[in-house]
């Protein structure tokens, strides 16, 4: 916004030129202005130090300074004040030099001198105001940029900290999961080792004892003259011993079949399917593809065997099936075990709801 009263500092050593200029400014609708007149550059700089002005009108020929030196000194001592140079001698080189030093305008005194000065004053004031507005806008923009940069840095730091915390949590969970899996594998190996030990004891120790008992009963029945009731009791004991032998063999097989370690998963499943069918009375089809005599890792063979064992046990307990099938398929990147039956099945949603009700029960 332009000032209501334009404050002009005129540096002119000719009093008549100064009076003529003031009268001309009154006639060219400059508006209200206050003109301060001095004759030397030194006095002008004292005025600039003592008061504020909107524009400096500077003659180049002064008692204490002449030509280019005049505007160089003025610009150096009043860097923020708009300066309009006035001279009686036109020199294009000097005029260009003045513009390069930040002089607002370079005027040649003449007939239109008054109108030129008035226009130059208005332009200088408007330009100064525009420069100040631009500086203010730039300062505001820079402050906004600084604030935005600060917020971005803070947000980046927060995200970095959150990401670091997340990475730490992921790493800790991975370590915990790895440790959990290692514990499970150790427990599984320990369980299978114990199963194998008990299976061998049942097969070797108890199985041998039962076999010896059966042979002894047979010898007693054949070679001793016993009464018919006693002979009948010995026959029942032989039958019971035979039943115990079958149960011991089945229990040893279920705990840890030696064929799984000796011949591998394919043969172990084939034999288990046959014994399961004989015991349950449910026909079962067993098919194997892709193994071609190859062995899987001991852990994988044990896991698959246990899955088949548990699944077929559930078929007998719950499915009321009349037919079952067992398919073992090995591919380059995967192994699949499929157990199917034609039993009654169950409703997954109803089972899930029942588990939910059981979990939420106060007595659960």
Question: Descriptors for this entry?
Answer:
364 residues; alpha/beta; Heat Shock Protein 90; Rossmann fold; rod-shaped
What does this structure look like?
It is built from ten helices and ten strands. Helix 5 runs antiparallel to helix 6 (228-255) and helix 8 runs parallel beside helix 9. Among the domains are: 6-110, 3-Layer(aba) Sandwich (Rossmann fold), CATH 3.40.50; 261-364, 2-Layer Sandwich (Heat Shock Protein 90), CATH 3.30.565. It is rod-shaped, with a radius of gyration of 55 Å. It starts with 5 loop residues before the first strand and ends with a helix. With 364 residues, it is α/β, with parallel strands linked by helices.
Low-confidence stretches: none
Order of helices and strands: EHEHEEEHEHEHHHHEHEEH
At the fold tier of CATH, the topology name of the domain at 6-110 is Rossmann fold
Number of strands: 10
CATH homologous superfamily caption of the domain at 6-110: Response regulator
Helix percentage: 55-70%
CATH domain class of the domain at 6-110: Alpha Beta
Give the termini distance in whole angstroms. Answer: 82 Å
* Mean pLDDT over the full residue set: 84
| Number of helices in the DSSP assignment | 10
CATH architecture classification of the domain at 6-110:
3-Layer(aba) Sandwich
Radius of gyration of CA atoms, rounded to a whole number: 55 Å
Strand order of the largest sheet: 2-1-3-6-7
Describe the global form: rod-shaped
- Percentage beta strand: 5-15%
Can you summarize the main beta sheet? 5 strands, parallel
Structural class: alpha/beta
